[in-house]
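Please fill in the sequence for the structure shown.

STRUCTURE ENCODING:
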């Protein structure tokens, strides 16, 4: 059995919580799937939580494309990832942005 590896850049946006002092959340977005019109972002209470949610989301998106027999989008190179989310979750801009490849093995 052949293992397929799907690796996509994910953008992590760290945002201060608007109501709780010294609190933040992390939103993760997959720009390559957003370009395909797919809801491609999740958030978590911290980086570990957000990463777990992002890995689950990547698996769900890939499986959806496979199930519907659609072409899975190509992964962007890290240098070419679009950092614009297209939406603002809270009023303040993120205080930190990171990009990391996330892998789903099938």
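FILLED IN BY: designer on duty
SEQUENCE:
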């Amino acid at each position: 059995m052949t293992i397929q590896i799907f690796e996509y850049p994910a953008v992590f946006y760290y945002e201060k919580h608007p109501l709780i002092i010294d609190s933040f959340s992390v939103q993760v977005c997959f720009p390559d799937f957003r370009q395909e019109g797919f809801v491609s972002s999740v958030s978590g209470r911290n980086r570990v939580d957000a990463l777990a949610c992002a890995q689950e989301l990547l698996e769900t998106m890939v499986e959806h494309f496979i199930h519907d027999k659609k072409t899975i989008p190509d992964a962007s190179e890290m240098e070419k990832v679009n950092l614009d989310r297209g939406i603002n979750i809270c009023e303040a801009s993120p205080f930190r942005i990171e990009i990391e490849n996330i892998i789903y093995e099938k």
